[in-house]
């Protein structure tokens, strides 16, 4: 299972992902890197929790704050 998750994350590097956090925030940004603890580094991150999107820039999210990750659809 860990290999599948690692492969999925690796296949989505440099793509926009959406993250649901424990504090009910939703963050979108370009996945740049990750580690075995699911700490993520994002570029061009935005808080899209409310109607007004707050630009956050480059951020590092600690893995234990992430509840869910949504990946882009790769449909043609």
Stated plainly, the CATH topology is called: SH3 type barrels
Instruction: List the strand order in the largest sheet.
Output: 4-3-2-1-5
The gyration radius over C-alpha positions equals 12 Å
Report helical residue fraction. Answer: 10-25%
Corresponding CATH architecture = Roll
* CATH class categorisation: Mainly Beta
Structure class: mainly beta
The N- to C-terminal Cα distance equals 28 Å
Number of domains: 1
| Main beta sheet | 5 strands, antiparallel
Shape: globular
pLDDT averaged over residues: 92
| Strand coverage percent | over 45%
Order of helices and strands: HEEEEE
Number of strands: 5
Features:
5-stranded antiparallel sheet; 76 residues; 13% helix; SH3 type barrels; globular; mainly beta
In short:
The chain is mainly beta and 76 residues long. The protein contains 1 helix and 5 strands; from the N terminus they run αβββββ. The protein is 13% helix and 47% strand.
